[in-house]
Every structure is written in C-alpha cells, then in structure tokens.
Amino acid sequence: MFEKTFPLLASYAFMPTITFEDHQISVAPDANLRKALFKSKATPHNAGARFLNCKGLGTCGTCAVEITGDVSSKTAVEKWRLGFPPHRPGANLRLACQVKVKGDIQVKKHPGFWGQEVDQP
Hints:
Elements: H1 2-5, H2 7-11, E1 17-20, E2 23-26, E3 31-32, H3 33-39, E4 64-71, H4 76-81, E5 94-95, E6 100-108
C-alpha cells in the first residue's frame, strides 16, 4: 500500500551504506559512488590524482577501487578503461565514477596513482 501511494518515498525507505576508510555514508539507491564519496569529504583518488583526473567521465582510471557488495554492472567505458595499463584485467577493480550503489558496500582504495597496485598492502 505504501509503495503504491508514495512510490518515490518507498524507493528511499532503504538507504544503502558505503563503508570507506573511516567513513560510513548513507546514500539513496542508485547514487553514484564517486559523487557520494566527494559529498562526504572522502575521495576515490590517491595523491596527485585528486587534481589530475577526468572529473567522472571514466577515461582516466584514477578512481579505481575494490568493491564488495551490491553495485551496478560495469559500463562499456569502465570495461574499456580497466582493460589496459596500468590496470590489469582480473584485478577486480571498478571505477567509482561509473558505479551506482544498489545496496550496502565496502570500498577499498589500493596504492598507486591509479589505485592499481592491488597486490600491495
């Protein structure tokens, strides 16, 4: 009944939580991960990549993160960018700028300018 009467409000009844470093961020379903991190004063970028990046177009690859949880499928741009160096196929990374949050997730940023050093502590 509630869903039929207030469909927009029903979609916000469940607010996914992003866990990233020392941040716990509640977002609306389908929120863009990069935008949500910036809004909470966090960043998916390392070092100089905070200033030198594509601003969310998916072309630079500097917002690559490891994600556990329910998110959207990879976009064509994301598959393309993560398919060549410095990224490695099979590294299980996602581009924060291309990800929509579907449920509770844990996000980890790895070392390296692009966050590509998955095997590093």
